[in-house]
Amino acid sequence: MSYIYKRKAQYHETDQMAVIHHSNYFRWLEEARVEFLKDLGTPYKEFEAKGIISPIVDVSAKYIKPITFEDTAYIYMDITKYNGVKLSIEYHITNQNDELCVVATTTSCFVKDNQVCSLKRVEKEFDEKFRKYIENEQGNSFKK
Amino acid sequence: MSYIYKRKAQYHETDQMAVIHHSNYFRWLEEARVEFLKDLGTPYKEFEAKGIISPIVDVSAKYIKPITFEDTAYIYMDITKYNGVKLSIEYHITNQNDELCVVATTTSCFVKDNQVCSLKRVEKEFDEKFRKYIENEQGNSFKK
Amino acid sequence: MSYIYKRKAQYHETDQMAVIHHSNYFRWLEEARVEFLKDLGTPYKEFEAKGIISPIVDVSAKYIKPITFEDTAYIYMDITKYNGVKLSIEYHITNQNDELCVVATTTSCFVKDNQVCSLKRVEKEFDEKFRKYIENEQGNSFKK
Amino acid sequence: MSYIYKRKAQYHETDQMAVIHHSNYFRWLEEARVEFLKDLGTPYKEFEAKGIISPIVDVSAKYIKPITFEDTAYIYMDITKYNGVKLSIEYHITNQNDELCVVATTTSCFVKDNQVCSLKRVEKEFDEKFRKYIENEQGNSFKK
Fold it and tell me: Does A82 fall in a domain?
């Protein structure tokens, strides 16, 4: 069962096409990810407190329908891959009319002391939380 | 022969990891694309003046090396696909030390009167410029 | 009694000083203003629907205490001046510990058919709502 | 004689009013300031290398004429106050037709070891450069 983040589309995020500028969705995904990680029991702030940062290594997005000022976006997230070293999340963004607007993916890694590392080694507790989440999701197809 | 856009990395584009925030690269790509289109003889401003907008339909990026405040980025661009309806561009971003930092792609379409359209039909002159560019590039592998 | 807008400080809004970049507060103020106007019965979207835009003519901000990632900001707003032609709002931003972080003002005007205009003339109903709000506030000192 | 920073107005900086969003000017001012400080022999990067950051403590802006996509902005800067503890800069932004678009001010302070400090004490060499600049400007009225 996927996690959902709700987000109002803001005026300052529009461009002169009168739609949300495509770059802004990656900011929304980040906001959604922050809440998702909190919900998983692995808050990003605690990563940083432990000296671990989690930079994005790749992203993709497919823009299906524009989102406009004052629309409400619903961002559905699911982990599609986790191996200790990389975490891949898939996002489906719908609007308030339940129309699919954006499909996106992000992959992040984990870095400690300037080196890419495995969470399994540097932060076992968080590693287990990711594994447990995936196990529980097993068999649950993505709902949106 | 690819087109190159030079861009200084700005302080306001950094985040608390002290690197350029990953979402900002899509803004740089847009800036680069605007100059590239001008160079091709098909300026974006003229598209809009003719009632044609060119929304992004998909993007992807692979982040290889972070770019930091005051770095100078070089964005190499080439058209990888053009069929009148969609335009795909590939970007290679290097820093001032000629290190590859980001590889990205964008695909945009053309919209007139709220309908996706073929440039070949609605703006023959621009269509021919894209086709001519690709023809000339034929056989030239991407230089960077 | 002032209107309050609650806002989470986002990672993508930080800079390499590890605080919210000062330019972003003006985006927060805009978000707050949009909700405030809705609450007043004069939603910005309806302004635009009536062909009226409301550009900012001046702003100021005093930054007292930095806001950091995951802080919760509370933006208290009050109308400090309204004469039909210009609307001035004052903002006090506090964090979750009730510490004052930013004090700011914005003044916007009203534009129809590319001309600055008086709301009293072009949109009497909205004009009255602003006047009524101010009248009700009379004697209420700013609470924060 | 004031320092001038040239800046192209970008598509991603517009909003649905089809003008540069007012918050973005503070980013332009920062870019301009970075170049100005470099020109003065006190580059911001060296401040940070010496453990000094220079947060903004207050700003103001008056928006006179909108700037639109593809306009070229010229940002004229001058130091209006410097006392070792605070640095105030005034900015006049014109477009390619030499029309005045924005007048703004920023004041920044200097922070070392989490404490506001006087440059005179913590970085005498930079302090002297600011004082020398002001002395040379004495009697030169702002040119734009």
Answer: yes
Amino acid at A64: I
Place of tokens 């190159």: B4
**Residues of D with catalytic function:** 15
Confidence class for position B144, pLDDT limits 50, 70, 90: very low
Inter-chain residue contact D14 with A16, CB threshold 8 Å:
yes
> Residue A79 burial (CB < 10 Å; 0-12/13-18/19+)?
middle
DSSP letter assigned to residue C18: S
List the beta strands (DSSP E) in B11-110. Answer: 52-53, 56-63, 72-82, 86-94, 100-109
**CATH number for the domain that contains residue D12:** 3.10.129.10
Whether C143 is covered by a domain: the verdict is: no
Residue A141 maps to a domain: no
Mean pLDDT, range C85-89, rounded to an integer = 98
- Which structural domain, as residue segments, surrounds residue D80? 3-137
Let me know if A71 is a catalytic residue: no
Burial class (CB in 10 A: 0-12, 13-18, 19+), A144: middle
CB A119 within 8 A of CB A129: no
Task: Please state whether beta strands A3-8 and D100-109 pair in parallel, antiparallel, or not at all (unpaired).
Answer: unpaired
Distance from CA of B144 to the nearest CA of C (A): 30
- pLDDT score of D142 more than 70: no
Q: Please name the residue of chain C whose CA is at the shortest distance from the CA of residue D29.
A: C23
State the nearest Cα–Cα gap between D133 and chain C, in angstroms. 26
- Which residues of chain B approach chain C closer than 8 Å at the C-beta? 11-12, 14-18, 21, 23, 69
Cβ-nearest to C11 among A10, A30, A69: A30
pLDDT for C140 beyond 70: no
Stretch C91-97: mean pLDDT, rounded?
98
C57's tokens: 């003519």
Total domains present in chain B: 1
Contacts of C27 in chain D (CB under 8 A): 23
Neighbouring CB atoms inside 10 A of A100's CB total 14
Q: What tokens does A63 get?
A: 């823009």
Residue D143 belongs to some domain of the structure: no
pLDDT mean over C60-80: 97
Residues of B in contact with C15 (CB under 8 A): 11-12, 14-16
Please tell me the distance from the alpha carbon of residue B49 to that of residue C80, in angstroms, as a whole number.
41
